[in-house]
Predict the structure.
Amino acid sequence: MSTSGDISNSSTTECGDIGGGDNDEKMSTSYEQKSKISGGESSSSLDIDTGSSGKAVSDIDIISEQLSDSIIADNTNTNADSVGKKSISDFEELLFRDPPPNEDCPVCMQPMPYHSGVGGVEKIYMACCGKTFCRGCSLAESKEMKKGSMKPWCSFCRVPLCSEKETVERYERRTSVDDANAFYHLGYAYSNGNWGKRQNHMKAIELWKRGAELGSCNANACLAYAYMHGEGVEEDHNEAAYYYKLAAIGGHEVARHILGILEEVNGNFDRAMKHYIIGARSGDDKSLKETGKGYKYGLVTKDEYASTLRAHKECQDRMKSAQREEAANLKRTRN
Ligand SMILES: [Zn+2]
Ligand SMILES: [Zn+2]
């Protein structure tokens, strides 16, 4: 394996796809029904965005076809397993609290989202020191090194970057010091069958469970996805909802959005809007879009929508920088 010459490509980004896509026509049908119930505007003349088709929409299809109404509404779930987790009712009150404050990038000191990509801010985990920093910083560092024809190193600890195989070995060393992010990223390597690891969903689950115990909301989100799709575990939508809730409580913006979708599919529109508002205030565009639809259909008040818009903008503004935008543009052109 070759040593990567570009920092921005040389370490894993956060788990990228856990099924948090746009809410599509199915959702607008829900709004229409609710609108009729609540005496809101008719949907026929409103401009409803249709989401992109793909994995996320198929998730919604699966959810609406297979989930029972009780999955989210059941707050008396006592399906505690061997990790000694709490029942959903134990943390129900935590669910709609404000999420924890964002962590700052240790290089530029600007806040970062919990889920890479929210607000256009990508994150990179470095197995050398266990730090996660923004892709804007890694790009800036990479450009400086290229000027001096220097070998790439970690923007934080200055340890030279290494091959994929050695990077995974660094993950493994980080797990020995209980680094929650190392468990999460190593689990992702097993789940995808990359970074020199043969695909092994059960191993991924084992690693994510430990990462989740150590406090990684990304590991909780990956567990939720695995239970939703039966990857490495028996498909269990109650468990999926449980882990999405844990991830959302930990600040995971995409998990928050998915909880909104799940509530909506079950007809729990008030709870869905609460999730979308929290997600939007955390800078998530998709949750803001759903909040806007909720406003159109009378599910969200004008004041609530206005304050959500302001909070969403303030959150994204705090995370914005020229080098982060440059990194986002570079990623777009590469894709
Ligand atoms: Zn940074
Ligand atoms: Zn480092």
Summary: The domain at 11-334 is CATH 1.25.40.10 (Serine Threonine Protein Phosphatase 5, Tetratricopeptide repeat). The chain has a mean pLDDT of 78. Strands lie at 123-125, 132-134. The longest helix spans residues 302-319.
